[in-house]
């Protein structure tokens, strides 16, 4: 099972990134779990300085921006099992 984590407090960009992740997983027909991490202490533990943050299978791939769907799909493909 692939695990995609979106880190953020619930701001508009965090919600947008979560929606993009859902779209990308559906388009790729992936077996993946998308988790939303809103706990500030958990976010701080990752070292993210600005949200949204994106982690794919334990690898932090982005923070502080919302990628295009094409970029997101590329990152997912690079980091799936």
Secondary structure blueprint with pairings:
Elements: E1 2-7, H1 12-28, E2 32-37, H2 40-46, E3 53-56, E4 59-63, H3 69-79
Parallel strand pairs: 1-2
Antiparallel strand pairs: 1-3, 3-4
Helix pairs in contact: 1-3
The backbone outline, from C-alpha atoms, is: globular
Structural class: alpha+beta
CATH C-level name = Alpha Beta
Q: In percent terms, what proportion of residues is strand?
A: 25-35%
How many strand elements?
4
Calculate the terminal CA-CA distance, rounded to whole Å: 8 Å
Query: What's the SSE pattern?
Result: EHEHEEH
Work out the helicity level: 40-55%
CATH superfamily: Glutaredoxin
Number of helices: 3
CATH topology: Glutaredoxin
- Counted up, domains total 1
Report strand order across the widest sheet. Answer: 2-1-3-4
Low-confidence stretches: none
Rg over CA atoms, rounded to whole Å, is 11 Å
CATH architecture: 3-Layer(aba) Sandwich
| Biggest beta sheet attributes | 4 strands, mixed
The average pLDDT is 95
């Amino acid at each position: 099972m692939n695990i995609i984590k979106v880190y953020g407090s619930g701001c508009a960009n965090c919600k947008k990134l979560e929606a993009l992740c859902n779209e990308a997983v559906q388009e790729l027909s992936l077996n993946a779990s998308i988790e939303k991490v809103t706990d500030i202490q958990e976010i701080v533990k990752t070292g993210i300085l600005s949200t949204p943050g994106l982690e794919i299978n334990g690898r932090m791939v982005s923070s502080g921006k919302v990628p295009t769907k094409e970029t997101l799909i590329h990152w997912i493909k690079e980091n799936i099992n």
